[in-house]
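Table S2 (text version). Query chain:
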Amino acid sequence: MINAMTAILYPIAANADAALAAPLGRAARAREAERAAGEAVSFVSEPAGPAFATREAALDAYAGRVEDDRPGHAALAVEDRYCRLAEVVTPGARRPVAVRPSYADGRRWPKPAAHETRTSWRVMVSYWRLASAAPAAEPPQARKARRTGAELPPEALQAIARQPLRPVEPQRPLDIGLFETRLPESPHIVVPDE
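Corresponding structure-token output:
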């Protein structure tokens, strides 16, 4: 008897909502997804559908799509586990503020403030996104935007601040220090860069 391999079959779609409603197909690997879609794909996880105030409401709305650990609910098949619930900060809600340890009354942290951050529950869908449906290009890195000298609108500045940092150049090999370089005429010799 040959044991069948079990893998999650991720939907192939243009966006997360289409992945839930009407995917083009499902595939476990990128090459299978590209073959089914007829174009390049990239693996992404994005929120889909409406936000729910409680976890129970989200579990009820997505019954049979997300893993439900409540008693009396059946487990999902392995290949259908491409959705999960995530608690996210509600847009426009006040973000939590950092607090300092108090070390008072035998407690390290102070009691939480009365105003809790509002959160909601969303379903996160992992799927193969079509290359033709990829989002618009990211804004430039801050260092490049400063060099142009152009005034940027506030929305562009916020987009630049939210994106992750990317290196300017590939990391140097570990056998060379931060302030060392190789001589162009003798690449086997490492000299100080200062």
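Notes on Table S2: The chain has five helices and seven strands. Helices lie at 16-21, 30-37, 55-61, 142-148, 154-162.
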